[in-house]
Amino acid sequence: MASCLLFLMWFLSGLVMLYVPYPTLTNGEALAGQQPIDWRQVHVPPR
Hints:
Shape: elongated
Mean pLDDT: 91
Number of helices: 2
Radius of gyration: 22 Å
Largest sheet: none
Helix content: 40-55%
Low-confidence stretches: none
Order of helices and strands: HH
Structural class: mainly alpha
Distance between the termini: 65 Å
Number of strands: 0
């Protein structure tokens, strides 16, 4: 009986994952959470 309930919960959670869209951020929201780049600490050696 417990395995049937576990399978049912697994199946229903899969249905939810198929049909409920994952939350996303806009570009502005994603950039608002970033720290500015300190260009003095960026060191890229020449090839």
